[in-house]
Design goal:
mainly alpha; three-stranded antiparallel sheet; 3 strands
Length: 140
C-alpha cells in the first residue's frame, strides 16, 4: 500500500522525536559544517565529508552502545542518516542537511514558548499565593 506524503512527514518527525536522536542529528550537522569550513585548520579536525564515527557518537551521548545503535537505526530507516563502513568502524552522515532547518525551527518555537511562559509567570499577581511560615511570600 503506497504511503501518503503526510504519513512520510509524520515518520520523519517521529524519527526526530527523541532527544538522543536530535543530539545525533546536531552532531552530524556540526560535522558537515566543519567539513565545509573555509579554514584549513577547522577542516583538518573534521571526519571525512561531515561524518562521525559511531565510536564518537556513543561517548558524546553517554548511552550504551546498543541504545545508540537503535537510535541510529531509526534515523537510518527514515532516511535521515546514511552509514559507511570502513573496516570495523561505522561512519554516519546526514542524508539531507535541510533536516537541520526543521530542528532549528523546533528549537526557535520552544524558546518562544518558554519565554512566553516566563512572562506569564512574571505577570501573575502576588495575591493568591500563600505566605510561608514566617510571613515570607514564595517567589513567582
Amino acid at each position: 500500500m503506497p504511503r501518503t506524503l503526510m504519513e512520510r512527514q509524520a515518520e520523519l518527525l517521529k524519527a526526530l522525536g527523541h532527544p538522543a536522536r536530535l543530539f545525533i542529528v546536531q552532531m552530524l550537522a556540526e560535522a558537515a559544517e566543519a567539513a565545509e569550513a573555509p579554514d584549513e585548520a577547522e577542516r583538518a579536525g573534521a571526519a571525512g565529508a561531515g561524518e562521525k564515527c559511531v565510536c564518537e557518537i556513543i561517548p558524546a551521548l553517554g548511552m550504551e552502545q546498543s541504545s545508540v545503535s537503535k537510535h541510529l537505526a531509526v534515523l537510518r530507516e527514515r532516511g535521515v542518516v546514511e552509514v559507511r563502513r570502513e573496516g570495523t568502524r561505522m561512519f554516519y552522515r546526514l542524508t539531507d542537511r535541510r533536516v537541520m532547518a526543521i530542528v532549528r525551527l523546533a528549537r526557535e518555537i520552544c524558546v518562544t514558548q518558554l519565554a512566553q511562559a516566563q512572562r506569564m509567570l512574571a505577570e501573575t499577581p502576588q495575591q493568591g499565593r500563600q505566605a510561608l511560615p514566617g510571613g515570607e511570600v514564595p517567589p513567582a
